[in-house]
Amino acid sequence: MLRRIVILMVCGLAAALAARPANAQIELANLREDVRGLSQRVGELQLRVEQLERENADLRSRSASAEKGFVTLSQLNDAIADVNRTLRSGDASVKADVLQQVGTQMEKLAKQTNAALDSLAKGMATRPPVQTTFANDYAKEGISYTVQKGDTVASIAKKTGARVSDIVNANKLSDASRIDVGQTLFIPGGK
Description:
Elements: H1 2-18, H2 24-69, H3 73-126, E1 142-146, H4 153-160, H5 164-171, E2 184-188
Antiparallel strand pairs: 1-2
């Protein structure tokens, strides 16, 4: 379209110049050269417009594909909600597994505890009863003895020449197996 306008202008100028006789031919030649330059420039501009149209189309297609790569806020919220649901169900599953393992361990510990209590009860049944009454028929004279590591009432009686029952009665030991290191005992008739 631009080319036609230029051609019409040139034709109009050529007709006006044709009426002038002298320099008209030179000016007409110059005008023709200008029209040729303008035509060439218009051709270049048309090529540039075509190139820009191709680039524009390419950008539009890239934009359309890029829009597919973006998510909306609601899509993002839905995805987050899905992840949260998955985590909750995973947590519930892990919690159930942990509770099951804890339950199994507690059952094992309960069995072990019951076995230990049964063993203690059997040991207590074979143990001599705790003495709660004490006789006064032991020698009132004797020595003091400080319990050493590894001592028992029987070993002290053997060392000192006293009787176990006299040591138990004189010191009112309700459980002869429970004497403490550093404890001072009266040994009736001891040497």
